[in-house]
Amino acid sequence: MNAVTQFKDPVAVAAAAEPAIRFEAVSKVYSARNGDPAVTALDAVTLSVAPGSIAGIIGRSGAGKSTLLRVINGLERPSSGSVFVDNVDVAALDATDLRTLRRRIGMIFQHFNLLSSRTVFDNIALPLELAGTPKATIKARVDNLIELVGLADKRGRYPAELSGGQKQRVGIARALATEPKVLLSDEATSALDPETTRSILALLRRVNELTGVTIVLITHEMQVIKEICDQVAVIEAGRIIEEGPVYQVFAGPRTDTTRTFVSSVTGGELPRDITERLTASRDGARHAVLRIVFTGENATAPILSRLSRSLDIDVNVLSGQVDEIGQRPFGNLLVTIPANQETVGAVTGLIHAHGLKAEVLGYVA
Ligand SMILES: Nc1ncnc2c1ncn2[C@@H]1O[C@H](COP(=O)(O)OP(=O)(O)OP(=O)(O)O)[C@@H](O)[C@H]1O
């Protein structure tokens, strides 16, 4: 893909000219081996992450997410193109400089990767010990981190004595020990139940707000993107197929893959009996199926009563949900209206006039 894909959070971009992380036409090809063909895991990825933001990369299994994360901290080298962290070309660093850079990049993992023989305190202290930090500094910093992640009563416990959520809290504290500028999250909540997931995401958001650390997370769950990300990029077969502020991508997904991800959390999926009867043609249809997306201050506009009143039509609600995305209200409503062309035109016109989005999904008899 040649088009430049860039996160465009106008506020963040204005505040900081230099992105925290920049991918320039990054490709990664794993070479053929033992008769298996070569794999293009990343295909000309160009992407910027604003400092202090939380950027989510979402994609299905095998899309290239882990590879994308691993080229940021130099665990993989791009086959072509460059990755810059704080304007430093990661691939150009020698072993010593790469070690220094990695201290500025924390990482958390799906399966926590804690050392079972070390206590909570000692797991968190480990990166500082490796960096040769004086003991008193280690103690002060680890004590602070233990408070921050809410594990004050678990400092002497071993990983086997902790719940999954508590283990991830240790993982987060350990990743923050060297005061990194960037935190990479590799499916950090995938092994956790929904409630624990929410509490870990809330902790990450708090850490981001308190320390200003830039967070890049990879996930296959749109719920994660919805809960904490400012920006999202959708990756498929190694390419970024869509990106932008989370709110914008939720309001107007442009590809089928993104639409599927979005509808998995916005209640935007059609009831099955409607999906089975949905056609693209108006011929013989009595109803048009319409998706109305409510955003921002318009999220609570009484659009349905206005439609039926001013156009004198029946509007039937199939499903609807009002949510919060990127800390702004967001509603998604599926309705049927009479199928004739004039009505559909008038309805969509009125909806657009109210600053909302409307999309005809198809027709049913
Ligand atoms: N070290 C490697 N050698 C060869 N092929 C690899 C290697 N690592 C990843 N791949 C291949 O590259 C592609 C992208 O893999 P990657 O792990 O980046 O995807 P992913 O989106 O993280 O997948 P998942 O969600 O399943 O972890 C896959 O086809 C995978 O098989």
Automatic annotation (TrEMBL):
GO BP term, example: amino acid transport
Mind naming one GO cellular-component term on file for this protein?
A: plasma membrane
Instruction: Give the top-rank taxon of the lineage listed in the UniProt record for this protein.
Output: Bacteria
Domain (ABC transporter) spans 21-262
Q: What name does UniProt use for this protein?
A: Cell division ATP-binding protein FtsE
Which organism does this sequence originate in?
Phreatobacter stygius
The record's listing under PANTHER family reads: AMINO ACID IMPORT ATP-BINDING PROTEIN, METHIONINE IMPORT ATP-BINDING PROTEIN METN
An example Gene Ontology molecular-function term? ATP binding
- Family matches, as PROSITE patterns: ABC_TRANSPORTER_1, ABC_TRANSPORTER_2
| Family membership | Belongs to the ABC transporter superfamily.
